[in-house]
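Structure ticket #2291
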Amino acid sequence: MKGAPGPPARGRRQKKSVPDAAFDIWLRRGLHKMFDDVAREPIPPELLKLIEQDRRK
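Resolution: structure written out below.
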């Protein structure tokens, strides 16, 4: 009697099923549609200052 199959070999990726891949595309497009404008906005100087102060710690 054979045991359960092990994980896939290194370097090989398991292919996603068609519904999973379609969902991933739909989700990615939806997220881009909702958030691309926000992601393109400049970072406020006050936030940049806080980030820089935190880096120095």
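Closing remark: The longest helix spans residues 18-40.
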